[in-house]
Amino acid sequence: MSPTRRKKPARKPAGKRTTRRPARRTAAKPARRASGSRRASATQPAKRKRRLSLRVVRAPRPVRRARAATSAASFPQREGASPKQLVLFELIRARAAFLAAIHGMSPGAANEPMGEGRWSVRETVLHLVTRDQARLRESESALHGRAPSWKGIRDPEMAALNAQLMAPLLHLDWEDALRTLFRVREQLMEEVESVPEEPAEVWSQEHAFGWMLYALPPHDRHHADTIKRWRVERGV
């Protein structure tokens, strides 16, 4: 009886099975992790590709639409505008460019000549005042087709005329010069706006009145560019 009982503990097939079970479990876990990592690695590149496509392809579209909307809304006065409205628009836009060129300037810098024998910024402002005043004086005659008195005048006659017209204003300081610039331009705009839309030929550059007004925007821009260049060089 005793030998048979001793043989019973010698059975270890069950033990071998128990050792095999953890081996199967441990072998199955890495398989799951590997499959999970494969899935993650398979999905990650797809997500990255989508992000790159969103940044490269879709992002510029709102920018282009915004630019198109901005450019369309920047100058709506041009769309279907009458000749009179175009003249008014150009007068306003050019004067805005000049005001931007002198923005933030101190009285000391405004009184400094912009080179040897050249005007200061304050004197340039007074010069623009005289050009608006000239148009106020001759707008009625120009409407009747009479050419402005300064048309065709060249230097040095024009320089002498400018000095003559500026002489009564030279006593104005910087602040008074700016106030006069705004006041006279407002008077001119009111005068121009009071002129009827018809006949349309009055607003063309071939007509004396239209020529007189179309000459103002490039004149404002010319002096605006001169002042901007001087401010950059001078650092003021």
Explain what this protein looks like in three dimensions:
The chain has 236 residues and is an all-alpha fold. It folds into two domains: 69 residues; 153 residues, Up-down Bundle (Four Helix Bundle (Hemerythrin (Met), subunit A)). It has ten helices and no strands. Helix 4 runs parallel beside helix 10, helix 6 packs parallel to helix 8 and helix 6 runs antiparallel to helix 10. The longest helix is centred in the N-terminal third of the chain and has 46 residues. The chain starts with a helix and ends with a helix. The N terminus is likely disordered.
What's the gist of this structure?
The protein has 236 residues and is an all-alpha fold. It is 72% helix and 0% strand.
Q: Keywords for this structure?
A:
single chain; 236 residues; mainly alpha; Four Helix Bundle (Hemerythrin (Met), subunit A); 10 helices; disordered N terminus
Count of DSSP strands: 0
Largest sheet: none
What share of the residues does DSSP label as strand, in percent?
under 5%
Per the CATH scheme, the topology name of the largest domain is Four Helix Bundle (Hemerythrin (Met), subunit A)
Oligomer: single chain
CATH superfamily of the largest domain, please? dinb family like domain
Structural class: mainly alpha
N-to-C CA distance: 119 Å
Global Rg: 41 Å
CATH class of the largest domain: Mainly Alpha
Q: Estimate percent helicity.
A: over 70%
Low-confidence stretches: 1-8, 15-19, 33-43, 52-73
> How many separate structural domains?
2
The residue-averaged pLDDT reads 80
